Amino acid sequence: MKVSEALESRTAVRAYLEKPVPAELLEKILVTAARAPSGGNLQPWHVLALTGDSLHRFKAVVAERAKDKPMGEGTEYKIYPDTLGEPYRTRRFKNGEDLYRSLGIGREDKASRLGQFAKNFQFFGAPVGLIFAIDRNMEPGQWADLGMYMQSVMLLAQEHGLSTCPQEAWALWHKTVREFTNLPEELMVFAGMSMGFADSEHPINLWRSDRAPATEFLSILR
Question: Could you give the angle at the alpha carbon of 173 between the alpha carbons of 75 and 179, nearest 5°?
Fold first, then answer.
């Protein structure tokens, strides 16, 4: 598979088959992705991979705590600005509406929307759950490096017939993540990622988020 094909075919998958990911393939992807670019070669990414019994126990802990805290524990950083201006606000709103529409969930059905949101914290049924962390002393440049590592993971997974869903929502459970995984205090939970074999027939996987035309973001100076 060409890089362009992996990039074009990648999408956030939110329903998976009950089919395990071979351990050696998972390790190969996570290790190979470390060739991602890194300013000063700091390589600031830290990855926790949960599979099998560990993943099952972790999800059970989160599900139990979510009964009292359905929106999680809060984050250590702002996922979005306090005031999200245009065109970003409209893009985010449309993305959410398109997602729920694919499941036939209307705006008034708050319970079903919350139920779908909660599936984030079960890694959407994927057999692999990844948590990405970064040293809390790092600056925006190193956060960009972590993002490039995550993108590399997703493209490599795509090459090997796997699907993924990056999930900043896991930052909402940073306390539980830290407790369960013994994550050192100097590391901050940035995001999670589901990985596995896509359920290609599930309605939520039959739509893709759109992209703005080049005229909205591209300037070529000649």
Answer: 115
Q: Which domain holds residue 188?
A: 3-82+121-202
CA 138, CA 42: separation in Å to the nearest integer? 10
How do residues 164-201 score in pLDDT, each as one tens digit? 999 999 999 999 999 999 999 999 999 999 999 999 99
What sign has the CA pseudo-torsion 38, 143, 91, 84?
negative
Q: Determine, yes or no, domain membership for 50.
A: yes
pTM, two decimal places: 0.94
